[in-house]
Design brief:
- The chain is 36% helix and 25% strand.
- It is an alpha+beta fold and 556 residues long.
- The protein has a seven-stranded mixed sheet. Strands 1-2-7-8-9-4 form a six-stranded mixed sheet, with helices on both faces. It has a four-stranded mixed sheet with strand order 19-20-21-22, covered by helices on one side.
- The termini are far apart.
Length: 556
Amino acid sequence: MSVAPSGSTPDHATLTLRYRSDAPEAEGPLTLGQDNMIRCLRHDEPSHMNKQATWTVPPGAELPACLDALRTLAERHAALRTVFPGPADRQPERQHVRAEGEFTVRVIPLADGEDPAARAEAYCWDGRRRAFDLAEEFPLRFALLTRDGAPVLLAVVICHAQLDGVATGLLFQEWITLATGGTLPAPAAPTPVEVAAQEQSAAGQRRTKAALRHWQHILAEQPTSVFADDRIGPNDTLLPTLGIRSVAGAAALERAAARTGASTSAVLLACYAVLTAHRAARSTVVMAALSANRHRPGLADHVGTLAQDALLAVDTDCPDLDTLIGRTQAQALSGYWHATFDAERIWQLIEDVAVRRGARFARHVVVNDLSGTVPPEVAAARPLPPAEPDLAWYPAEPTPTRLMLNVWRTVGCLEFTLHPHPDVLDREEAELFALALLRLLDLAGSRTVALGPAGEIAALSGLPAGRREKARWQRVGSNWVDLDAVADLLRAALPAARDIEVAWEEGELTATVDTGTAPLTPEQAHAAVMAALPGHDTAMAPQRYVLPHATGTGRP
């Protein structure tokens, strides 16, 4: 193994490791997962898109063995040797797999009494805030923490363009084997270049077209904003984090899944959906659910990035929770099946539907079940919660949504985090939401729960339902719209207008705009309104523009 010191400071040393794979260089188009994730990386904050992990060090593993294990990972997996050539300000079109190269490992000696987990967290947070150079950089940043020269913990920052959560978990399991001197069979799963070829095949193209139809149906018919009530204001993507841990919750979830015959994921999703629907004061919850996309043949052990959003529309208008669990499982299966798509075409579809509807998909509700990505060894090593249940608040993180549920563990101890926008749930309400979720699981383990207006959710949760009393609310299709917010939107979009009136007339959302002598067509007005729409979640573009010189919808 080639190891060279590449720099040091008083508190750490940086080693450079060279790798050389037996596989030749390779090149091909991006996979759908790579393309989607790179678009997200170019759009969102690095601290949101880059991921982190802490890998335990096997007892007795010495520094040379740890470094050799990391080098072997790089040589085994094409994804770790993959870069995306091209200018940083443009979406790449190709992936290039190197046969050899190098990466660095920072070695950090711990001070006496210093907490390894806290030091690893600090390293990862710092590393997550710096964007990866996709054209050049190795997709993992390592810091090996040592005490008295012996490795104790490995902190890892992960580039989402090359690796998703499942792939990171697979790498951890291999790391454990390699760091203890074990050997592994050659990888059997296809490489990212091979996955891209499968996706470009006729069967792959049929799959992406089916996904487009699935998304179009939901985007065109279902609510674009789940939360639309008196409390909802401008969006803020820096959301607080509530962590919940419960041993009883894991047992209840297992009982509920066994009693209903549904998966634990479906049970959790249904409980999340019905509480969200209660808070939103609407029956249908449109949510983005991150799909691992591992159900495709041969991809269970693929090391790469396959994860994409699944789009679900869960109708909670059911007599009881058992019915909703069954319905949610069916919706989830359909959503996950249609979660392999061409990101560019999906984003164009979102834009086209938004222009036609006058309302853009706001992605208010997100769920990310990561429980399958956490290796059992890591989960089992976690200490039990100090209280039952244990609730703890953590620093705010960039989270571009209104409500997000991350599920980290479901076996032995239920662990999840909730990221609520204060307009949706304040801190007290977020804790009520979490406790209500645990209570629902407990009840679902022994009986069904009545839903609907005369059901049990309001009393069980103690959560307020959304109110639409302070503004001029109007149901427009599947959306709730505040006419005053529409007027504010028009003022922002058309600052030169002298007077703006918004009304619900003859079944249409109508805006009468006095532009004076300035010529303005409905098409120009609609384009300006759509450009100003992001962030105005309780508004939508008028369906009819009445202008001094023309009247029309403004739609193409």
